[in-house]
Amino acid sequence: MSAEVLPVTTSSTTLRELIISNDLTFLMEAHDGLSAAIASRAGFKALWASGLSISSALGYRDANEASWTQVGDVVERIVEATNVPVLVDGDGGFGNFNNARIIARKLKQRGASGICLEDKGFPKMNSFVGDKQPLADIDEFAGRLKAVKDTTGPDFVLVARIEALIAGRGLDEALVRAHAYARAGADAILIHSRKGVPDEILAFTKEWKNKLPVMIVPTKYYRTPVADYRAAGISTVIWANHNMRAAISAMRQVCARIMQEESIAGIEDEIATLDELFELMNYGELLAAEEKYLPRAENGKG
Ligand code: SPV
Ligand code: MG
């Protein structure tokens, strides 16, 4: 593993500007302050606070087992660990319009730049698990979107996520839903698919004609080159769970090695150094602050 420490990425570009810009935008998954710091230093201009990854890091399943306040606490750590905008995966909003607007308001207060709501009920199930993916009624979900928009105002980005293709309901239903959610005040549409090729996503973008910017999550159709998304006029690609999955591989490997070797000597050169960690978490700032604020006797210089 590389010991290189990357510079901090700061961004004054808002999430809205990124989503409406003509450039393809990439959102990298973060599930805690550390993964957020790493992603923003790698150069990502915005982050995806993934429900799947946050749940997994907390030891929960992505089925609304983690409470909305637990997710909010993690989001606060993600926001504070970075200088780039954060789009939060708000699942279905944890209930009806009222739950959704309360959560959106709290996320905004905690520094998030937007929320993505999916048209499923509570509790939801991860889109790739099982074959039962009941969809929310269109009007009821539109009410959730309207309530969020009315509560959070124009700056906070509201993404409406359509699960019609995940539920096997087809392109026509996906388009009907997209139009309804646009009328309800969504700023962008996230169209999700569980297929290994992007055919149904590209069929959607062809018909939708960018009435609102389109976001995608190519977790299953990962082989598709991003040039295809640029050609289709897609606004934003979300790499939705790859920090969390990378952490699983790395931790598994290191646990197996230490178990087997009964020693940490063999893996020392393969894992991040403590200095790297201290730099990522900006311990230098704390040492400088001690110089400035602690009485001399207490900072060891008395
Ligand atoms: C997430 O990252 O939590 C998502 C994407 O919502 S997915 O896992 O594909 O549903
Ligand atoms: Mg999710």
Structure characteristics:
302 residues; alpha/beta; TIM Barrel; 2 domains; eight-stranded parallel barrel; 8 strands; globular; binds sulfopyruvate; binds magnesium ion
Q: How do the helices and strands line up, and which of them pair or pack?
A:
Blueprint (H helix, E strand, L loop, with lengths): L14 H6 L4 E6 L2 H9 L4 E4 L1 H8 L9 H13 L5 E4 L7 H13 L4 E5 L19 H15 L4 E6 L7 H14 L4 E4 L7 H10 L5 E3 L9 H6 L4 E4 L2 H20 L12 H7 L2 H11 L9
Parallel strand pairs: 1-2, 1-8, 2-3, 3-4, 4-5, 5-6, 6-7, 7-8
Helix pairs in contact: 2-4, 5-6, 6-7, 7-8
Bound molecules: sulfopyruvate and magnesium ion.
CATH architecture group name of the largest domain = Alpha-Beta Barrel
Which sheet architecture does the biggest sheet show? 8 strands, parallel, barrel
What structural category do the secondary elements indicate? alpha/beta
CATH topology of the largest domain: TIM Barrel
Q: Using DSSP, what is the number of strands?
A: 8
pLDDT < 50 runs, ≥5 residues:
none
Ligands (ions, cofactors included):
sulfopyruvate, magnesium ion
- Give the N-to-C terminal Cα separation: 41 Å
Taken in chain order, the helices and strands follow as HEHEHHEHEHEHEHEHEHHH
The CATH first-level class of the largest domain comes to: Alpha Beta
